[in-house]
Write the structure tokens for this entry.
Amino acid sequence: MDQLIQRFLLYLRAERNVSVHTLRAYRHDLTEFNAFLKTKYPRLSMERHHRLVIRDYLSHLHERDLQRATILRAIAVLRAFYKFLVQEGVTSQTPFVGLPMPKREKRLPRYLAEEEMNRLLELVAQSDHKWAPRDAALLELLYSSGLRIQELCQLNAEDIDLWSGQVRVFGKGAKERMVPVGETALKRIHTYLAARPKGVRGTPLFLNPHGARLSDRGARWVVSRWVRQAALQRNISPHTFRHSFATHLLSHGCDLLAVQEMLGHRNLVTTQTYTHVTAEHLKKVYQKAHPRA
């Protein structure tokens, strides 16, 4: 099993070109499953990894009182793993055939109201803090283009086209897409690039205090620091900016397919999650504006 897991992870990295974060999550979940098998089914052959074993493992996950999202991710990892084993001829059938799966909990994306977002961004822009130019550019770009935090940190200076107002992004699976950048964000980026030490072509867009590429953790810390200063009473992460980007676009009538393209979603169903949010927004507007609401 250890060798099969390594083969699968190598396949994900070489053939599927998954991100480092995805690879880490897959390795963690498969290691957990392998440890369960070694403890409870030490002599079970691969051909006998049948539905009862998987059902037992699911019960084991539920007993640990894990969040539904964590359990669903573990299931998705195992399904992909066994699908790979069938393709490789290691086993004849995946044990997930005909096995009922728990449904994903429907939760509306958390987002900031437009007034809250404006207050946060203006706070950073008007600050005289040493790193305010960088942080203002970073936060504006997150909100302006709806980038994932990993996508933002991987950007190089030449990925931003200040003339056409677009940014070249490499998303999940290294898929390239061009995303529009708002005028305010372009101004913040221009100010930041003009203020930082001149670098060579290919340098990271966002730098840490040591002159190296800003990490995901560093970018999350930047968001957290300014959220605290803005006194926003919410658990706001970089992904909240992405949710806000999509929600505000749809609220102002942007086409759903256009939002899907900008977010880099493979499936339109993923993007449709935000239509429920905007429906709530429209309901509030209706109740406030209609004379007989």
Notes: The beta strands are 160-161, 166-170, 176-180. The chain has twelve helices and three strands. The chain has a mean pLDDT of 85. The longest helix spans residues 268-289.
